[in-house]
Amino acid sequence: ELKSLPVNGQAIQLSEGLRVRIQDSNGMLSLTSLHTVPIERLIKNTENVNYATAPVNSLLDWSDADGLKRIDGAEAFDYSAQGLPYAPRNFPLQYKDEAGFIKGFDKGLYGRIKDDLTMLPSFGFNPNTASDAALMAVLDINRESLQTLKEFMSQMPIISNNQLFALTGRKLTGEDNFFSSPFMEVIVEAGAPKVIYSIRAGLNVVQNEYAPYGVVFWSEE
Prior knowledge:
- By secondary structure, this protein is α+β, with helices and mostly antiparallel strands.
- It contains seven helices and seven strands, in the order βββααααβαααβββ.
- The longest helix is centred in the first third of the chain and has 12 residues.
- The protein has three domains: 69 residues, no CATH class; 70 residues, Ribonucleotide Reductase Protein R1, domain 1, CATH 1.10.40; 51 residues, no CATH class.
- Helix 1 crosses helix 5.
- 28% of the residues lie in helices and 17% in strands.
- The protein is globular, with a radius of gyration of 19 Å.
- Strands 1-2-5-6-7 form a five-stranded antiparallel sheet, with no helix packed on it. Strands 3-4 form a two-stranded parallel sheet.
C-alpha cells in the first residue's frame, strides 16, 4: 500500500499505465527567482563547454524592462537579424517553454535542461530532492563528489551545511536550505508504453481558509 509519495521527481506507478512524479521546487533551478550562476553551470555541464554567458545574458535581456543589450546577450535586433518573427518580451517569463524562444536556448539546449528548470519560486536549495544535474550546478561539484553525496543521501537525508561541507567541501548560503518548498511540480502521465495523456501542474501545498492547496499553473497534453 502506497502511504507517501517522494518529492524528488521519481516516477511512481499508481496503477497500470498511470504514473505520477512530484518534484519539490527547492530541488530545481527557478526561472522566477532567476539565480543565474547555477543556470549557467547547468548549461556548461550539459553542453560540456567552458562558457555559457550568452544564453544566460540573453535570458536576462529577455526578462528585463529595457532594450539595452548585455555583453553576449540579445535584444530585438539580434532576433530580427536571424529572421525570427518575435523579439524579447522585456518582461519576466510567463511560462516555462517561453525560454525555448530565447537566443542561445534554442537549437535543442532548452529541451536538454528543462527538466531541472521551474517557473515555481524556490526559497533555498534542497539537495535531498535535486537531480544529479541540479546538484552539480548548484553546488559546483564534480562527478566524484556527487557520488559521495548520493551514497550518503541513500542512507539518510542531509540536513546541515556541516554535513554538506564534510562530503563535498561546499556550503549553501542563506538559511532556507535542506527542506522542501511548499511549491511542487506534479506530472501525471497515462498510457503505456506511449503516453497518451498528461497533466503538468504547479501546486502550492499550503492550506488556507479557502482551499487545501493552490494551483499556480496547469497544462494538459
